[in-house]
Design a protein that fits this description.
single chain; Alpha-Beta Plaits
Length: 97
């Protein structure tokens, strides 16, 4: 499965990059395939391991912020691996045709 999620600390002002970095650090240290862009961090793996990483990433932000907002989207496809790369490669192949 692939989960794309965003963790936003609330009540800490406008500059939230330091808090978001705490969450992304948890994801990167998990060892699971992941990708971060301007809006979301995507992580790929089995249900329990991905949800554990999301939970720990939220907890990292929650430890420093009085309130946390989370947006999460999941693509659940049993048996599919390397979806973070293959889905993008498929789109790029169609764009170059």
């Amino acid at each position: 499965m692939i989960v794309a999620f965003s963790v936003t600390p609330l009540g800490v002002g406008e500059d939230v990059g330091e808090y978001v970095a705490d969450a992304v650090r948890v994801v990167r240290e998990s060892g699971l395939p992941n990708r971060t862009d301007a809006m979301f961090t995507s992580v790929e793996g089995e249900w329990d391991e991905v949800m554990d990483v999301v939970k720990r990433a939220v907890a990292a932000v929650e430890a420093r912020a009085p309130r946390v907002s989370v947006v999460l989207k999941a693509d659940i496809r049993p048996g599919v691996t390397d979806g973070l790369t293959s889905k993008v490669e498929t789109v790029e192949r169609h764009l170059s045709a």
